[in-house]
Amino acid sequence: MSAEEILAELERVLAVEREAIRAADADAFLEAATQKEKLAADLVEAGAWTRADMAEGLGRLVEDLRNNGALLAEARDRLRDVIAALHGSRSAESMRKIAVRLSVRR
Question: pTM of the entire structure?
Answer without folding.
Answer: 0.73
